[in-house]
Design goal:
This protein is an alpha/beta fold. Helices cover 52% and strands 8% of the residues. Among the domains are: 237 residues, Pyruvate-ferredoxin oxidoreductase, PFOR, domain III (Pyruvate-ferredoxin Oxidoreductase, domain 3); 89 residues, no CATH class. The chain is built from 22 helices and 8 strands.
Length: 551
């Protein structure tokens, strides 16, 4: 790996001449597959060359067109070639850890990955990063909220970099109708790290000749946003009369916006959004049921009629957590909801945007469904649902696969749209289905446990309320969550032990259930707290006759 250089000029040509900068400016561009990182590096290279600055660009591609990381390395000598008296800079093909002047990234965790590899230097490296996240496989695999804490990521960046500019560049790209590479270029141009003028960057975009108008819009949005933040920061520094050398880094995303991204809404706002969601999901009466259920918890906790906007007590937290998970549980997933989401105008707009469809383009969208017996039985009354489920269970016992109906619907066609609208219109039948009745029984059992816990001890009510996150999804995931919740409530939440001990046991069991989908850690935790392990489930064993050997 190349070592850091004291001079970026060739020794063979060094000699008398005008004073020049000692080294090139090192820029590392980090993007995800398909985000246009290669285009961004080409824009930077062409902008530098057209402005008369010597430059070089190299790349290390990752997995193309998906979420594989791709890195592009550009070096730009900050003196025009005309002022070097025939001398040529010596460029490196690879970035050197700790020797970067600018680190640019389209995704927050990817930025931290590069910082973790030692690429940034606290005294030298400036960082421009989008706050947008593309969740990793490890984050998605978690049964609970496996997302990395955005506030912690931002704090780590500020501790290991000279200065940081954090913006939601993905949102700016959506506003401009372009890709994030154009927005990143605007942020780079406004940062002032590189010696080119704004016109040189815009000329590089025009030279590419594709999607010029949209790219220039995205460039301008990011340039203006970063320039405004720089001007605001300089004004504050001037007011405080701080020397530039000790000026603070750009402020990270505010605590309020970070809290909003993690669902930390105020109680009043949370309930308002919950009512809106349940009204759209079912009807106004269903939304009133949500309010009635929360009113029961308010009375159990001794709260007033209107929830407090800043209640940090265990009782207030318990009601807030119950409100969060209750609205998600009441708006459970079923085939009707899936059809409604497929027809949503926002979804159609997103598909057209991701396909980069222009005005007049024909976009064909095919939606794949594979409903099984549980999904169909969910819309039938209890009697018909039990018969249908029993029929499918007998098929499985006799060695057959569970019944399903693979469907491919072209939602861009009249036939496909009508089929989806027919499914979406069945939400009025949802109330008469077996799944709806079963969900309401489970919800009531959980809410009664939360009420009982609040009356015993607010800390116990809080932990029981948080158990609502165990129930999610459909099929095997939904069945497993229901089983875990019922077992915890039955054997740990209530008993002769002190309420504080039971609260700790419920919390430990919930965290174990969320950490391991096999249930082994949950069984170990249950037994450690004196509760029985989950009963074994019946499994179909299939026997296959061994085929005789050819000999």
């Amino acid at each position: 790996m190349p070592m850091p250089r004291d001079s970026g000029l060739s020794a063979a040509t060094s000699g008398a001449g005008p004073a020049v900068a000692s080294r090139p400016l090192a820029v590392l561009v980090c993007a995800l597959g398909g985000e246009g990182g290669g285009v961004l590096s080409e824009w930077l290279y062409h902008a530098a060359v057209r402005a008369g600055f010597p430059a070089q660009s190299t790349s290390v591609p990752g997995v193309a067109q998906r979420t594989g990381a791709t890195t592009y390395y550009i070096e730009i000598f900050p003196q025009p070639a005309a002022q070097l008296a025939g001398r040529r800079p010596v460029f490196s093909l690879n970035p050197v850890p700790g020797a970067l002047d600018l680190l640019v990234s389209s995704e927050l965790l990817e930025t931290l990955r590069q910082v973790g590899q030692g690429m940034s230097d606290p005294q030298r490296t400036r960082v421009i990063s989008s706050t947008a996240r593309a969740l990793t496989v490890a984050e998605k695999m978690q049964m609970g909220d496996g997302r990395a804490d955005a506030a912690a990521l931002a704090a780590t960046l500020q501790a290991h970099c000279h200065s940081v500019e954090l913006l939601d560049l993905a949102e700016l790209a959506r506003q401009a109708g372009t890709v994030i590479s154009a927005v990143l270029l605007g942020a780079i141009a406004a940062s002032g790290v590189l010696p080119m003028a704004r016109e040189a960057y815009e000329a590089a975009i025009r030279h590419a000749g594709k999607g010029v108008d949209a790219s220039l819009r995205g460039f301008a949005l990011a340039f203006d946003a970063v320039a405004a933040r720089r001007a605001q920061r300089e004004a504050v520094e001037a007011a405080l009369r701080l020397p530039p050398a000790v000026a603070p880094s750009a402020p990270v995303t505010s605590a309020g916006s970070l809290a909003a991204t993690r669902g930390e809404l105020s109680p009043v706002e949370l309930r308002r959004l919950g009512r809106e969601r349940l009204t759209a999901y079912q009807d106004a009466a269903y939304a009133r049921l949500y309010d009635d259920r929360l009113a029961r918890l308010d009375r159990a906790a001794g709260a007033g009629a209107e929830p407090s906007t800043a209640d940090a007590s265990p009782a207030g937290q318990a009601i807030h957590e119950a409100a969060r998970w209750l609205v998600l549980w009441m708006a459970f997933d079923d085939i009707v909801l899936v059809a409604s989401k497929k027809l949503a105008a926002s979804r159609q707009q997103r598909v057209h945007r991701e396909a980069a469809a222009q005005a007049g383009d024909v976009v064909k969208v095919f939606d794949h469904f594979k409903p099984g017996v549980p999904e169909l039985a969910a819309l039938l009354p209890d009697g018909g649902a039990k018969q249908l489920l029993a029929w499918d269970a007998r098929r499985v016992v006799h060695g057959q696969e569970p019944w399903s109906l693979p469907l491919k619907l072209g939602s861009h066609t009249l036939r496909g749209t009508l089929a989806l609208r027919l499914l979406a219109s069945m939400k009025r039948w949802r109330r008469h289905g077996s799944r709806f009745a079963q969900e309401q029984r489970q919800i009531e059992a959980w809410l009664e446990a939360v009420e009982r816990g609040l009356r015993e001890a607010p800390s116990l009510g809080l932990e029981v309320a948080r158990c609502g996150r165990l129930v999610k999804g459909y099929g095997e995931t939904w069945t497993r969550g229901q089983t875990h919740l019922n077992h915890i409530l039955q054997h740990l939440a209530f008993g002769p032990a002190p309420a504080a001990e039971r609260a700790q046991a419920v919390r430990a069991a919930r965290e174990a259930a969320l950490a391991d989908d096999t249930g082994r850690r949950l069984d170990e935790t249950l037994q450690a707290h004196g509760a029985p392990a989950r009963p074994p489930r019946e499994q179909v064993v299939r026997w296959f006759k061994r085929r005789p050997s050819a000999g």
